[in-house]
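>> received
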Amino acid sequence: MSPRRARVLRDQGASDSPGALRRHLIDVTQRLLAAHGAAGLTTREIAREAHVADGLLYNHFAGKDDLVVTALVERAAELVEGFLAALPEPGAATLEENLHVLAQAVLELTAQAVPLVTGLLGQAALLGRLFDDIHDTQAGQVGPQAAFGAAVGYVRAEQGLGRAAADVEAAAVVELLFGACLSRAFVGQLGEREVAVPAVTTEALVGVLLRALQGPGSAAPSSPRVGDRPDRR
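>> returned
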């Protein structure tokens, strides 16, 4: 390995092994994607930010798209692992308090995950590959299906404890929660543009979920209307 190619890692006190160089390229690409998205990202820009020769990328990846997808899949797995760690413990607090924890975890997951996808809109082949790889359980990655499944498992555990109505479909409750949070995240990608539909507060969202899980005639506290008060964070 030439001294020039390994210099950036030696300057950082890191190994200059092929594995370390590959890791370095992935880390740099993740930073660029987080800052600017995938649109317009070039091999030269990645190499310049990584302080390596342009051709080095091809020693470790089939091309720029291969590197970008690898970086995005790893980032998605990190987000899902963080989500799993943030899930509430069934029965450890009140159902309402746990639903706030769950809703906040879903909000944070979707707020960070959606930009990974929107940056590839208009690049159908690359987006399709990302979806294939991100859901490939054989690859050893923790995909978004694990986040959804864990949330469903939490709701079912509350039902098993008798704290939530057993006749409510847990997957439907979780799908409503994820759908609302995904909608908010996508609207957030519009930046400062004014949108016609105001965001539903987290308090209101949790109130709807709580009433659904406690069944008809429950004494669940009333939920504020849209825009009545800021999110609970």
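>> The two ends are 50 Å apart (CA to CA).
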